[in-house]
Hints:
Layout: E1 12-18, E2 27-33, H1 51-64, E3 67-73, H2 75-81, H3 83-97, E4 104-108, E5 120-123, H4 131-152, H5 160-163, H6 169-178, H7 192-199
Parallel strand pairs: 1-4, 4-5
Antiparallel strand pairs: 1-2, 2-3
Amino acid sequence: MLKKYLDKIKIEAGCDEAGRGCLAGPVFAAAVILPKKFKHALLNDSKKLNEAQRQFLRPIIEENAIAYAVASVSAEEIDKINILNASFLAMHRAIDQLLVIPESLLIDGNRFNKYKDIPHHCIIEGDGKYMSIAAASILAKTYRDDYMKELHHSFPHYDWMNNKAYATKSHRLAIQEFGITEHHRRSFTLSPDQMALELEPELD
């Protein structure tokens, strides 16, 4: 069962990202402040829910949250600052947009770049432990999925409607056949050829 909060008194914002391992598109992040008494039997880590369940929970989270925000960092920015820093930046941008200033941040994962003077707690697999982080994981995931589905219509060869730009075999083969788009992350290993080159041992 997910915990409702880490601190009973402080205003806590749960933060999580989506799309860190994708080959194209932005990384998204969400920050969510839930009422201390909020609970929902279905609420869980977004990865443990199917798409219909995530879409069902999204409006419930948005309607019940004290405050929430979703932000993104583009593929171009990811290539400049790397995906880890881009994930932190996306969370910072989401926190920036909160209409209520949190007193504590619950971060999914084991690392984070400090946000202003607000204390933070890094929690490994936090999206499966705290409601606010689980809620953030659902918003980040659904907003990003919707973005990639929309982008799919302009770039149907890559099947982003279904793979959401993750590194599936079909996505890599499409890159090999059709090349890359302006939405692909050039700092990532994108094609099977790149993978083969990277796996080849160096010659003396």
